[in-house]
Design a protein that fits this description.
mainly alpha, rod-shaped, 2 domains
């Protein structure tokens, strides 16, 4: 009976390479099994106390209308100056004349009257003691003296009124300009008051902004650190995969051959054939006796 041969070939990776790939695969499973990690920290820096104070300063300035009162007063003054009339001019002149009348004219006239009375008394006493004139001539002299005094008083009074009116008219004429100047000063003061509030608010806001920028940078650094830590296992896996990619891939082959005979009867025939040959060599019956009567 013909013989048959069976060949079995088994291929396997190099154990060293197999170990590396196995460990990489296990680590990849661990990385893939990690749950999603959400960032729990703050991302946006809040307003600083200085910024909140700046907001309050601006709100209060807008609510209280800082400078609006001065601007309104300046507007009223400008409107009055624009509507300045001759009647208002005369009223202002009279208003300026009133204190001049009291403090200058009336006081001057009172002094003149007192001086006149004193001179009259002194003149009468002198004339009485000297008996220089008679009654008739004394009357004429006194009348002449009184006329001179009246003329002097009238001239003084006219001069005072002229000076008083000139001064009052000058004051009244310059009053609109002074009012406008005062109005401009009020308007500038109102704008300055509002500008001061804006400056304070800007200074506070700038200080708070600088602090908030620093806090924001710290928050961004913390978030970047979190991202780096979360991505570190993946980076390790990528490094391992990159290292194993360049490794050689040797395959070990193992072959096994099997050559079976004709079964039991084939094997027995072979044995008998060999025994017959031996019997011819050693003599008839020798092998037969050895095999115990099998032949």
């Amino acid at each position: 009976m013909a013989e048959t041969t069976t060949t079995t070939t088994a291929q396997a990776l190099n154990p060293f390479i197999q170990d590396i790939l196995s460990r990489n695969y296990q680590f990849a499973q661990q990385v893939a099994a990690q749950p999603y990690q959400a960032y729990q920290g703050p991302r946006i820096a809040g307003f600083r106390p200085q910024e909140m104070q700046a907001f309050q300063t601006a709100e209060q300035a807008a609510t209280n209308q800082v400078g609006a009162q001065q601007l309104q007063q300046a507007t009223d003054i400008a409107q009055r100056a624009a509507g300045y009339s001759p009647q208002q001019f005369q009223q202002d002149v009279s208003g300026f004349m009133s204190p001049f009348q009291t403090s200058v004219i009336d006081a001057t006239m009172a002094r003149l009257a007192q001086n006149r009375a004193e001179r009259d008394a002194a003149t009468k006493a002198q004339m009485a003691s000297s008996r220089a004139f008679g009654n008739e001539r004394r009357g004429v002299y006194e009348a002449q003296l009184a006329g001179e005094q009246d003329l002097n008083t009238a001239q003084t009074l006219a001069d005072l009124y002229n000076r008083g009116y000139t001064q009052a008219a000058g004051f009244a004429q310059g009053l609109p300009g002074q009012q406008l100047a005062g109005g401009r000063a009020l308007a500038e003061y109102g704008q300055q008051a509002l500008g001061n509030q804006q400056t304070y608010a800007n200074m506070l806001a700038a200080s708070g902004q600088a602090q908030r920028d620093m806090a924001q940078r710290n928050l961004e650094l913390a978030y970047q650190d979190f991202q780096a830590q979360r991505a570190y296992p993946q980076q390790q896996l990528q490094t391992l995969l990159a290292g194993s990619t360049g490794l050689p891939s040797p395959v070990t082959s193992t072959q096994t051959q099997v050559s079976p005979g004709g079964g039991f009867f084939g094997t027995a025939g072979d044995v008998l054939g060999v025994a017959g040959g031996l019997d011819k060599i050693f003599g008839t019956g020798t092998v037969k006796k050895f095999l115990g009567g099998l032949i």
